[in-house]
Amino acid sequence: MNFTLSEEQLMIQQAARDFAQNELLPGVIERDRDQKFPHEQVKKMGEMGLLGMMVDPKYGGAGMDSVSYVLAMEEISKIDASAAVVMSVNNSLVCAGLEKFASEEQKQKYLTPLASGEVIGAFALSEPEAGSDATSQKTTAEDKGDYYLLNGTKNWITNGGNATYYIVIAQTYPEKGHKGINAFIVERGWEGFEIGPKEDKLGIRGSDTHSLLFTDVKVPKENRIGEDGFGFKFAMAVLNGGRIGIASQALGIASGAYELALKYAKERKSFGTEIINHQAIAFKLADMATQITAARMLCFKAAVEKDEGKDISESGAMAKLFASQTAMDVTVEAVQIHGGYGYVKEYHVERLMRDAKITQIYEGTSEIQKIVISRSIAKK
Ligand code: CAA
User: pTM of this prediction?
Assistant: First the structure.
């Protein structure tokens, strides 16, 4: 087992770190306050290859490995978790799913602009009454011969307002349960496809989350992904990889908060000494550093297994479960270490604490991760 990062991985990490410091840090507080999408920054991330990191260059991607993706996600998330979720959804839920399962024509038409960052994509699975219970899709895709007729509502869709292409999961044969579900590529602007209002969120406020409304939207047959009835398996496979992205986002939120807390603890004095010299503070930092290192190792393990072509349902779920709890624990302590300063916007840690919470909810709640992990270990 080798714990040394390659030259290339270190370069990607440094490039992402520099980009986050120079391009994301300015204005991050205002974007959070005003719920402003980082348009210019996302465009630059596309130019840097950060939006299709693992996609083959022949489809517009950067052809990097998954460990590089974890490293870049961590650096971006340390500074701006909103920009990071745009990146994670485009890479893991949209591009990875298309590269693995779409037809050659679909890849040429949709994957190439998405992986090169020319446009961004969204993944629409959740519904008003089907989040964790993903089989209970109420959105229908009726087979009409040459096309499917799409009707229904999707909720909580990241990139919902700014995407150009949407992967939409819908039920074609309700009597077949999960085997009756299909996945489709739907284009923004198609007749009957309406984007609902933006959600006013606790955290990741710079990212846009919308509902999507479909009324008799005609989806051409050639826009179905994979075989008839493959949609649920497609969604599960995509989410397995997506969980590495969100785990890395959580890792970045935690390490961003930790670095700020460590710096503050070395500077701030109380009772005649820097507060890091008080055991009450030093032990908090020790716990934070240990949890972060463990979370990073779980992210790397899942990333390496993904590149080896292994089943990553268990390792991806473990990484997300642990890293998202780490993000919560570490950000709460980072605010505590900062005292009153931690409670105001200027010091960043309160935003990171708000951003952390969603990592325990989206792309499978922590409770869902435990279902995935426990089913996997029970099979062994
Ligand atoms: N990987 C691969 N295959 C899987 C799988 C996984 N993680 N989980 C289930 N499957 C397969 C099963 O093997 C089974 O296949 P067979 O029929 O061939 O045996 C099939 O899928 C059905 O599985 P289950 O019977 O286990 O299905 P279930 O109804 O009990 O649900 C679940 C399983 C794990 C709870 C699943 O519903 C789930 O993962 N739910 C969470 C969904 C989720 O993550 N939602 C988040 C929305 S996306 C989002 O947040 C995007 C965003 O914008 C950021």
Answer: 0.97
